[in-house]
């Protein structure tokens, strides 16, 4: 009787062990299948080149523009970039022009401080950035990671940055007539609104400024450098704060909380609108020497209803109502209290209404 009982118990235990083993094997096999499927999906979306010499890896996100690039030509050309290819440099690194052939050119940003230890998280962020496609956002086409540096490969914006147009040579500024400035304002607003409201998870840019608004061949605005502020700490030598952002564009609450918010981006966009209207640089030494800001200066003048005094002198004969409306929209964005500022979707709507209805917002 007792023996029978033990035999039954052993049989049950063996059966249980058998079931557990089957479950474990099924679990491992399903994991392997899922990984293979995910890898194949990833491969369909990316082109991968390994560089045996420097130990680097280049990942390009597949897109129609890269369709014809089947070889490792990209990697070879990228690694040959030199000082003569430099377009400019900023807080995060140096930007180069990469010419693949007469019809294909890219902008390659070499990040100052690459390190192998952040690789997986860093790559995940870049993959997410590569998925973002919008007509007012600069496309990230791929990246290259090497043990001591990283490269980001963007589409090249032939007309450079809004900052260079507004504050560069006078000749370039002349090309920025009122309709062009208005189009740039609305395009940039749409790009930021897309990051804030349509991307999942929502993206806060954290460094909206005129040098991060680039211009394509049709002078359409494209927002660049989104995600970089969270990805990297800017150079300490740059005008950026330790956390993120650039003086002259930062919302007042940022200095208290150090927290980047969508409403902080709205404030920075308000500063860009003032830049478009006044032609003045928010980081201008004249403002810092006087202990004032572009924002406080303009607010005082607008309160006295003397907008024409602060308007860029090269904006002669522009429609007064439109200009005044953009002034008021910028002031709404620059409200000291974040909750009183409009969202970027509302800003887009307000800017669109100026053209369609010819409304006068401030009256
Ligand atoms: N995709 C691009 N196409 C063309 N020019 C670009 C592109 N990206 C950047 N540039 C140019 O390269 C220069 C440096 O850009 P970068 O973004 O590194 O610095 P920044 O915007 O001036 O400052 P920060 O790094 O603080 O944002 C700028 O003059 C910009 O116009």
TrEMBL record:
Protein location: Membrane
Entry keyword Translocase: no
Residue intervals passing through the bilayer: 16-39
Principal localisation: membrane
Positions with a binding annotation for ATP: 109
Domain Protein kinase: 81-354
Sorted UniProt keywords: ATP-binding, Kinase, Membrane, Nucleotide-binding, Phosphoprotein, Receptor, Serine/threonine-protein kinase, Transferase, Transmembrane, Transmembrane helix
Protein name (Swiss-Prot/TrEMBL): Receptor-like kinase
Organism: Quillaja saponaria (Soap bark tree)
